[in-house]
From TrEMBL:
Keyword Transcription attached: yes
Keyword DNA-binding: yes
The protein's name in its UniProt record: DNA-binding transcriptional LysR family regulator
Family according to the record: Belongs to the LysR transcriptional regulatory family.
Length: 287
């Protein structure tokens, strides 16, 4: 029986979930040529073609589509075994800081997995905005931070890109106006800056109809129908949907987040950070 390197499977899943070799290269932090070589090696081990030409890119073959499930199960078993063996005797405390974007979506399941494999580790969570979380991290108060990226950093484990989209209440705007009503967080805020820049770039008249220091306040403003806002798909939920096409709003850039681990930290924070670094790109691609 041939053994398959988990790194080959990880790259294969990054391609399957991202849809391109370039996206996979970003996820696994390798060059596109290295990713191509990994896929060729995996196909040699499997004995089947997993990728096929599709225009200028590649797509999964029927065998490749079937192999996705196998790869995912193998990596899950590999990761759970690694975490359980390392975590059985681990103790101490992990302080994780995250923006609300992830606290409401992908973090709960991942933290549950970590807690089951590290039953003696205390987990301290800080949910807040990027500015405050980054300051606390740089002051040594937080072991791991997951927040909007401020720029390249030597302690980054992974970066995540989510498309920004315009959102509004499912029932539409309560008070249609010639000037687009916009809801934003108080500055500094990358989403606020991106929304304003996009509207100003096309000379679209707008007004700040609602501001809030928190995402819960922003959600209330959008749900009320008094304004649209710019967030990622993580903000979608009951009563909130993408704006209708007839509003003809300008495109927005990607939101970029980073996962950072404090250097020379203890084993338990390192274990959690590795779990997040492995799983968040996959879950983000499927969001």
């Amino acid at each position: 029986m041939r053994m398959i390197d988990p790194e080959l499977l990880r790259t294969f899943l990054a391609f399957a979930e991202g849809g391109s070799l370039a996206r996979a290269a970003d996820v696994v932090s390798r060059s596109p040529s290295a990713v191509t070589a990994q896929m060729q090696r995996l196909e040699e081990l499997v004995g089947e073609a997993l990728l096929a030409p599709a225009g200028r890119g590649r797509s999964l073959t029927p065998v490749g589509e079937e192999f996705v499930g196998h790869a995912r199960r193998i990596l899950d078993a590999h990761r759970d075994a690694w975490l359980s063996l390392k975590g059985a005797r681990a103790d101490g405390r992990v302080t994780l800081g995250s923006t609300q974007d992830f606290a409401d979506t992908t973090l709960p399941d991942l933290l549950g997995r970590f807690a089951r494999s590290h039953p003696r580790v205390r987990l301290d969570l800080r949910i807040g905005r990027t500015k405050e979380l980054t300051a606390a991290y740089e002051q040594g108060q937080i072991d791991i931070v997951l927040a909007m990226r401020q720029g390249p950093s030597a302690d980054e484990l992974v970066t995540l890109r989510d498309p920004m989209i315009w959102l509004c209440a499912e029932r539409g705007l309560t008070l249609p106006d010639a000037d687009l009503p916009v809801a934003v967080l108080d500055p500094p805020c990358g989403f606020r800056a991106a929304a304003i820049a996009a509207l100003e770039a096309i000379n679209r008249p707008f007004r700040l109809a609602a501001t809030s220091p928190s995402l819960s306040g922003l959600r209330a403003a959008v749900l009320s129908g008094i304004a649209v806002t710019a967030r990622t798909g993580r903000f979608l939920g009951t009563g909130i949907t993408a704006v209708p096409k007839h509003l003809d709003l300008p495109p927005l850039p990607d939101a970029e987040f980073s996962l950072r681990l404090r250097p020379n930290t203890e084993p338990a924070p390192t274990d959690l950070a590795r779990l997040l670094a492995d799983e968040l790109p996959r879950l983000s691609a499927g969001a």
